[in-house]
Write a structure and sequence with these properties.
This protein is an alpha/beta fold and about 260 residues long. The chain contains 9 helices and 12 strands. The protein has 2 domains: about 230 residues, P-loop containing nucleotide triphosphate hydrolases (Rossmann fold), CATH 3.40.50.300; about 30 residues, no CATH class.
Length: about 260
């Protein structure tokens, strides 16, 4: 087995014993940019949470750097994984400053009772500066805009120095300008710092220029591989249950959906 990367073997994910995706096997190498797409209820978020160990798999195994971390909550290799959840799962009335939220990203590794060190504080300030948020460090998280909150959560995920960054619909609910900024930040982390990226999204149009590989989930099945090979009109139409048209342009493909249901 490859020493690096994340390997999934015949993974079945779901809730309360009800499978959403069965027999999923794939390898996510370090430094790759993966996008997870599919209709609502297909298991996209559950897939990510299963890799992270938040949700146990119904069957199969999860290997991180060759180590079986399937049922081991304290698996050491999980420290290389970090997570940016959907905004709905993160309280918008959280009574903390932007800096406090970023610093909370170190607690899973060191524990909440240990004091924050000067080095950790400097690392948090560095990420805030990198994401152009340093001036908001003392502002309450609940008073920040949706786009700013998303970037704060990205900084929170990065403070633990992960190798892989998992993001669950990071551009949903923010304006177009903020969404583009978030995608540029994520792509810079991928290209410049060689982070492995796994992003759940509904917006293939925006993320297409950055993605390298795609995982399509739907109807209990999956399809994974290089984006050019698996993103086809007939495949997307079948998975989403509506007619999908792909228009080729000099800037890349544009995905259009109609109202024809299957």
């Amino acid at each position: 087995m490859n020493k690096w990367g994340i390997a999934l073997e015949k993974l079945t994910v779901g809730y309360n014993g009800e499978p959403l995706v069965k027999g999923l096997s794939l390898f996510m190498d370090e430094g790759e940019f993966w996008v997870v797409v599919g209709p609502n209820g297909a298991g996209k978020s559950t897939f990510v949470k299963t890799i992270l160990g938040i949700v146990p798999p119904l069957e199969g195994k999860v290997f991180i750097h060759g180590i079986d971390c399937t049922y081991h909550v304290a698996c050491e290799e999980k420290r290389y994984l970090s997570y940016v959840p959907q905004m709905e799962s993160y309280s918008k009335i959280f009574p903390a400053t932007a800096l406090d939220v970023v610093l909370s990203g170190i607690f899973p590794q060191k524990g909440k009772l240990k004091p924050v060190t000067d080095m950790e504080r400097e690392r948090a300030l560095k990420w805030l500066e990198s994401l152009e948020l340093l001036r908001f460090k003392d502002v309450s998280f609940k008073y920040l805009s949706g786009g700013q909150q998303r970037k704060i959560l990205i900084a929170r995920a990065l403070i633990s120095s992960p190798h892989y960054l998992f993001l669950d619909e990071p551009t949903t609910g923010v304006d177009i300008k903020s969404a583009r900024k978030i995608l540029k930040i994520v792509n810079s982390l991928h290209k410049k710092d060689r982070f492995g990226i796994c992003m759940v999204t509904h917006d293939l149009n925006s993320v297409w220029p950055f993605a390298e590989k795609v995982l399509i989930l739907g109807n209990g099945k999956y399809l994974a591989g290089k984006k050019e090979k698996i993103i086809k009109e007939d495949i997307l139409s079948e998975i989403y249950g509506v007619k999908v048209k792909i228009i080729k342009t000099p800037a890349g493909p544009v995905f259009l959906t109609g109202d024809k249901h299957y």
